[in-house]
Every structure is written in C-alpha cells, then in structure tokens.
Fold this protein.
Amino acid sequence: MKNVKTLILSVTTAILIVTGSLFYNPVAGMADDIVVMVLKKEEQKKNRGWNLTDWLLTKQKMSLMDQWLSLHSSATVFEGIIGENYQKYKLNAEEIQDKEQEAKEGQFSLFVTILGIELSYNTNSEYDKSTTMQGQVVLRIFGRSIQGTHITIHYGYQQKKIENSNDTTQNDTFKNYYLGGDLNFYLMRYFGLEGLYRLYSKNKSENGVNRDGFYSEYGAFLDIRFVRLYGDIFKEKNYYSFNDPNSGITSFSTDIRRGFKVGIKIFF
C-alpha cells in the first residue's frame, strides 16, 4: 500500500513538471522584460535637451509675455494733467429750443501708476450763474499711460448749482454720482481718437427734483510733445421728475445739450 501511494505521488509530480515546461517559454518571458525596460528608458529620455522646435516655441511664448507686459505696465510712476477747454452748444428744454450757450471748463488730473483722481470746474451762461464741479477716481485697465492708447473706468461725484436772479424758483443744487469709461486710441504716433461715456444715477436735489441722465463725447486730438490740442463733439441729456406734495401729481421734463468743445492739455 505504501508503495502504491509513493508511485501515485511520483506520477503526479512528473505530470506537473511536464505541463509547466509546456506552457513556460523562457525566451518569451525574456522578450517581455526587454520591452518593458526599453519603454521605461524611452519615458526617461522624453526630454532630449535642446532642439530647434522647442527653442522657437519658447521664444514665441517669451515674446508674447513681453508684449503683454509692455502693454499693461506703467510707463511712469507719476503722471499729471492740467487743461482747459471752451464749449459752445445748443440747449433744448420744454420752453427753450436751440438756444446757444457757452461754457468754460478747467481740469486737473494726477495718476500714480494705474490709479488716479480727476477734478473739473465748469461755468456756463445758461442762467445768471451756473457752475458744475466734478471729482472722480479713475482706474486704467489697459495701456501704459494716459498720454497713450488706453482704456479707463471711473466713478465720481457731480454737483451742479443753478442761480437765477430773475426767477429764484429755479435756484437749485443737484448732486449726482456717476459711472463711466474713457478710451484713447492712437492712429499715428501723435494723432488719435478719443471717446467718453458717463451715466448719472438718480438723486434728489435740494428742492426735491429727481435728476438722472447721461453724457457722451467723441473727437480727435493732436500731441505736440507734452502738449495736446483736441476737439470733441458732446451730448448731455438729463431727465427730471418732481412730485408736488400738495396735488400729488408728478411732472416730468428733459433737457438736452449738444455742441462741441476745443481745448488744450499739458502732461507732466
């Protein structure tokens, strides 16, 4: 019985050895190992160092980065502007049609890199005395300087005071906040186009009159070194509403100013 068990064990072992030898191919196993090793080395050698194609691509990327920086970095840390302009326009209101008016305006601006403040003072001939004061914060979002191709956005405050000795009921003071944008685009080195748009928020005057509206202008300019001569066409439209506390009736009115301005700016 013991000899039979030994014989069965020996036969089984022999069958397993023969079967394993049939399915195992040492050459195929070695080939698989070689392929894996070659692929790993190829992966490690992907970066083959310097080549002309990569150098040209890198040079192009650096050129684009330099161009972007040159367009968005400030040319100077500080930049200032003083200016004055003369305006001539026609006023249209409920009882006024194409009445010619004149105005003068002074301006001052100061910028530190991309952020600045602008102040202006305007006097006109609409009444005995009408003055407008404005102050705004300006952010340059494109361009290297104000005396250059640029785009800015601004937020400001306007106070318009009317004094009329012939009809004191027209005396009033309007105070409005506004939001706007400005564009300068150079067509040539010293000549370009400009545009501005400003939207006034609705606010109540000292006499209880609500006022809102918009202002827009566009024109051209010529730079002579640090001096700029310019001419613009402008339009301003204001909407008024007043609720009479006695009758409870709300009245509405508008006025429109269309004209041109010519002026000078000095950059420093």
Q: What stands out?
A: The helical segments are 2-23, 26-44, 52-72.
